[in-house]
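Discussion board: Methods & Data

I've been asked by a reviewer to show the raw model output for two of the constructs in my manuscript, not just the figures. I'm not sure how much to include, so I'm pasting the format here to get opinions. Each protein appears as its amino acid sequence followed by a line of discrete structure tokens. Is this the kind of thing reviewers expect to see in a supplement, or should I convert it first? Here is construct A:
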Amino acid sequence: MTTTWTAPEVNREQEPYLGDERTMLEGWLDFHRQTLLLKCAGLTGEQLKTPSVEPSGLTLLGLVRHLAEVERWWFRRQFAGEEVGDLYCSEASPDGDLDDIADADPEIDFATYAREVELARETAAGHDLDETFVRRRRDGDQEMNLRWIYVHMIEEYARHNGHADLIRERIDGVTGD
């Protein structure tokens, strides 16, 4: 008997109301990570590949893939300086995370996302928020700190979770935070 894979249910933890800076940043980032997965919960692979509205091709699976790429980029590649390549993007397809989903395997992509989140947590663990790194750019290098990454990641997820909310509503009418 063949079963159709569906995105797993999520028990989202409440964001922190009290705590030091690190607790708040990590708590809010985890809240937004779980919110993305909540928006996908219970959907089949085909539903996860359903675009929002024309002309946009934005999908929930594309968002999961994109945020796996972003987790890897900021925590591992930029902060830790690890020499790991892109997950889905390439010179030929710079937005492959969002665009190249027709043949993507959602179950594998969700596992990849979960692994990148775990690796991001491991990378940041034990490092002070004021610890700096240099972001190399064509228009000039920028010194940044780990705190900036947390704030940026919360902003990145918050923006994309708004997209996810609208896509999910289009797919099956489910709304909510």
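Construct B, same format:
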Amino acid sequence: MNLNKLRDKAYQCAVAHGWHEENLSDEHFLCLVISELMEAVEADRKGRYANVGRYIAESDFYCHGAFSDTIFEQWIKDTVEDELADACIRLLDLAGLRGCDLDSFDYEGSDTEDYSDMSFTEAMFRICVYVTDNFYRDEPFILLNEIFAFCRDRNIDIFWYIEQKMKYNELRPYKHGDKSY
């Protein structure tokens, strides 16, 4: 996966939708990453997981495999996987804003937490600790890597969800209609 390409796409979409009209701090963006992780916790509490089979089946039937925002909203939106993708997209956007090279990092060979023995909430808490740790603030690739490691452990194809969410975000109105940030 070419993360610099995903970074550029996330950043360009954010610019086009008005999210970079003012100069905001890294803490602002990282707080929004935490909010996405907490939305993933809420989705888990409600048992909201994506139904990829239904999503693909309906996309093939109604749209002949093309992306449909309404089918996305029915089977993917506001699920654990969708919220984790949102957290990644926010980190990709921040990396684009700050000009971070994401492809120079060795994701496969890097040291990450072992999320296999953690509950969902413990894992999200651990990732939030990484987000708030000032050592990692200037290195979004490390934060991305922790989400990637969690997703690998839980067999979540996070790159597929990121790509689907980016398609959905491209169709959304300016500032998503009514959000100030």
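Answer (T.O., handling editor elsewhere):
This is acceptable in a supplement if you add a one-line summary per construct. For B, something like: Residues 3-19+26-49+82-177 form one domain.
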